[in-house]
Amino acid sequence: PWGMSAAEADVLLTGEARRVYIDNYGEDILFANSGGPIYYWDVSANTTAGIPAIGEAYVAKELDTFSGNSGTPEVVDSVLISKKDGHCVALGCNDLGGTSMNNVLVRWSDQNNPFQWTPSPTNTSGGQVLRVGSTIVGGLSTKDEVVIFTDAAVYSMRFVGPPDVFSFNLITEGVEIVGALAAANAANAVFFMGNDGFYTY
Asked: CB of 155 within 8 A of CB of 130?
């Protein structure tokens, strides 16, 4: 930009773009900016006769501000809904009780309850640290599983029910997706663009 030194302009050009992740939770909406909290917009509480209500009281609110919330991640890299089983899934987030982001931590809410993230014997919320890679790049929910991409591997996160809730299987190592949104689910397969070509799973 005009009036900036080359060093200042380099910082602007190489900085990370803000990424926004949005997913439907039934009729409601769950979303997050990368590096921020999870937000929730309740359709029934914020609409009148099918038309969105106007005013500050009707905007999306941080998930941890709703009554009944527990252990909600304060900072996430991305968020999605596991379509098969109704869990909210945070990819790259703070651990329970912590405030700093763990780039390879996956946490999920209780089944069909986006507000309960504290694991207990009476719910299905939990978490898992992925062992291959240094950061989660992105994820994609399919009809059977959630496919998670790190900077060094591809994982399958499959619902198996209590007590383990999810199984995590390493699909492949040495494959890196080019970006968080460079994958698509079609015809019972996941297609994604890696740094050295296109792949299918």
From this structure: yes
> CA-to-CA distance for 158 and 167, rounded, in angstroms?
5
pLDDT tens, residue by residue, 1-28? 555 566 665 655 556 677 889 999 988 9
Buried b (16+ CB within 10 A) or exposed e, 59-69: eebebbeeeeb
Q: How far apart are CA 136 and CA 149, in angstroms?
A: 6
Tokens of 9: 């302009």
Higher pLDDT residue, 12 or 183? Answer: 183
Residue 186, both tokens: 């079609």
pTM of the model: 0.85
| Alpha-carbon gap, residue 139 to 29, rounded angstroms | 18
Rounded Cα distance between 139 and 11, Å, is 28
If you write DSSP's letter for every residue of the chain in order, what string do you get? Answer: -TT--HHHHHHHHHSPPP-EEEEEETTEEEEEETTB-EEEE-TTTSEETTEE--SGGGS-EEGGGSTT-BS--SSEEEEEEETTTTEEEEEEEEPTT--SEEEEEEEE-BTTBTTB-S--TTS--EEEE-SSSSSEEEEEE-SS-EEEEESSEEEEEEEEETTTEEEEEEEEES--BSSTT-EEEETTEEEEEETTEEEE-
